[in-house]
Specification:
heterodimer, A: alpha/beta, Rossmann fold, six-stranded mixed beta sheet, 13 helices, about 40% helix, B: mainly alpha, two-stranded antiparallel ribbon, two-stranded antiparallel sheet, 4 strands
Chain lengths: ~280, ~425
Amino acid sequence: MSALLTVEHLSMRFGGLLAIDDLCFAADERRITAIIGPNGAGKTTVFNCLTGFYRPDVGRLTLHRPQGPLYLERLDGYRIAQAGVARTFQNIRLFPAMSVLENLIVAQHNVLMRASGYSVAGLFGAARFRRAEAEAIEFARSWLERVDLVERADSPAGSLPYGAQRRLEIARAMCTRPRLLCLDEPAAGLNPRESAELTALLRSVRDREGIGVLLIEHDMSVVMGISDHIIVLDYGKKIADGTPEQVRHDPNVIRAYLGEAEHEALPAEIAADLRRDDRPT
Amino acid sequence: MVANPNTAPRIDIAALLKDAALTAAVAFALALPLIGFRTVDDPAGLGIETRFDWVATGVGAVFLGRLLLSWLFALRGQRPAVGSGWLAHARAQLDPHMKWIALAGMLFAFLLPFLPFSSRYTIDIATTVLIYVMLGWGLNVVVGLAGLLDLGYVAFYAVGAYSYALLAVTFNLSFWECLPLAGLFAAFFGILLGFPVLRLRGDYLAIVTLGFGEMIRIILLNWVPVTRGPDGVSGIPRPSFFGLPFTANPPEGVTAFHEFFGIAYAGSHRVTFLYFLILLLALITNLFTLRIRRLPVGRAWEALREDEIACRALGINPTNTKLTAFAIGAMFGGFAGAFFATRQGFISPESFTFIESATILAIVVLGGMGSQIGVVIAAVLLILLPELGRELAEFRMLLFGAAMVLIMAWRPRGLLAHREPSMRLHSRNHRGES
């Protein structure tokens, strides 16, 4: 099990707020790594640093590839995506007026752009481009089958129901053929059945594609069910790191989620409820 | 659109009157200075004439009109549903036949000069309409596809026109040699504009492009040694038919068009030739845009319009994508400018004012952003209507404004706002279609 991504001493400051404080962790190939933590713990900030939307103040983000390491903190967002880090967004960002199929074809932009001879050969309908386009459509179709959206392929992406949009966004990220898939709260707003389907999809991504998955999630049933490795953040600091079982019983984690003093002061039945729920407040 | 009987509207007369009175008050405030007073030439100098009877008529009309309108709305129980109704219905009916409508339109365009009713005047207007169609199609790349609101498109039109005029007058280059150069220069200016505005979107982009358009015009006006300033460039060579000029008395050793074909000289030959030239240029623009929309770069433009952040997360370089959109849009503006220069034979900065940019943008927006046929319809409406309304003199712009307001009320997303995907997985009538 080799590390796919290592994060070393990552810090990010917004004015007086230290959003991430000296964070170190690693995400592996063929494993699902989850980052959890209460609201405002800095989870999405980690993602934004990883995918080039923020430039971190301090730290080294290394993507390990067969052809050598790549330091992400120096790269523009689109270059990071080209290097194989795909992401989805907490508030879904599809191309709503474009069709579902087009969304998946746009994700294969760089492959198609090269095949179209940077549009010159494509303008004249070169056979090479037509072949590449047919392959891209086939690849998109295979993903549409996996997320069960073949029927809606030609509808505008914005017209899909919420859960389908979530699935489409994951399919679109996968169409960039990433080495690391970063998902920002993929289960937010899904009903239990959809959450279960999502879990199955993420497992299949891990096992069939063999890529690393990095996950931010609030839904503990999803996180505990599929994560191989969990990192817990609180106020930008890592407070726990380990398997779901280890994290679940870590006193620091319980304190961060439930609070110490308040927790004791709560009526017994509510405190018990909170524990059973295992949900962040 | 039937009002629900359970919630049958009670018409509140007092409220209606109040609303109408308020509207009339606004009309009065506007009309008093605009219509109420008029400056007249007096033997003693400048005099003022008052027209309070006009103001009264206008305000009265607004009051009654507003009352009638809101009363009708109240009767129907609701404001008119926007975007629905017969137009949308007609659109749905026409949709599968769009290809044939486009073909018929093209056939009509090709035959126009030979139709019995067409005169030199008709062909002239049709040429003007086609210039705007071409400009609209060019701007559609930037605004409709890439979603970059460009209020200074006329700058590229000007660059193209001046490139051709100056190259032709100074270096004696022919139209066909200059055309690609004009496009190239305009594309270069497109990239030049593109760089500083890479990070801007929406209103902010509109302001900067507006400024850019004015800058180009003011440079043309003031850089006298090169552009000849406000005097403009005159004596721009007219285009020739593959080397055969359209002149009655060609210079020694040159065969004119009518001599070569052994027909009598007629002034309409050149007009007709110019018409076909712009038709060809416009069709090339259209073909190019339709094709490029199906290429990765075209889809990247649309994706950029939809969500730039998602584009970056998918590995699309937003800088290159935006710059190609600016460059290609500008290139077609440049081609159209070169054509404009050779058609007019004279250009000056006067021809490239902001109103031109606004008209072109209005064509794109009214037509329905991204719709090629919509642009044609809007161009015909916007250029032809004021032309037909010439007899109405000063009321022509008023009618024009009213037409714009009506279209925006009816079809806020443009006449043909429907977007056809650039590729399909299933055939058209698949049931999965929503």
